[in-house]
Amino acid sequence: MTKVSIITVTFNCAEKLDLTLSSISSQQYSNFEVVVVDGGSSDHTSEVIAKYSNLIDVYISESDRGIYDAMNKGVIAASCDFLYFLNSGDFFVNDFVLASVTEKLNTDYGIVMGNVMATTQDYCQFIYPKVSKFDDSLLNVSARKLFDSHICHQAYFINRRSLIDSGMYDLDFPHFADFHSFFRITRKCKVHKIEDVISVFPLGGVSSDPKNARFLLKEKELMLSTISHESVLKRMFFKSKNSIFVLKKKVFKWLQ
């Protein structure tokens, strides 16, 4: 059985953390470790941690530079081949999903991508990114199209080595670092699609507030522009490498 590191990031939201850890403890699958990264909470988070002390394998409590800094700490602390981020307030869709998904994990894959259920305050539910609409390979799908499909970290299990090799989460993108790393990994590693709905998470927060639309759009365009430049540089590198190889071949032939 594939062992998975479940990483939970939290800060001053003890009730939500309790919900998340309860969901993990209810899973009918035991081959996982739990890593909790707390940003130095001042509420009663410590009481929740004590309540689930038998469940938690690694607990880090210290200040950080935001959610993706905390998630990077979780990546480093984790020990399993695959990671799944289930942050405070998120919960598994049922008690059997972990057992179902882990059967489909393979270290040949950089990402194993399913679906998530998002809920609004008035209990409307949405399933996305609806992986069935994508081909088996995401190589021909543009970054913008993938971004507009609302792919989020709750939708996939990620190969720890692939994430580390990609540079982990770039703190220059405080709201979209998960998509940035996801896209980079899809350019280098195999992606395996599954139809499972993995978890549920509530919509809300910074990205849902219309007042933040302008700076989120600016960050989005910067992130997509960075991806585009990275792709161009990669093509230039391989083109130059191929040109050098051809030149060496010609020189070697001439010397003969």
UniProtKB/TrEMBL annotation:
An MF annotation (GO) of this entry: hexosyltransferase activity
Pfam families per record: Glycos_transf_2
Residue ranges of every copy of the Glycosyltransferase 2-like domain listed in the record: 5-164
UniProt superkingdom: Bacteria
Keywords tagged on the record: Transferase
Record organism: Vibrio agarilyticus
Protein name in UniProt: Glycosyltransferase
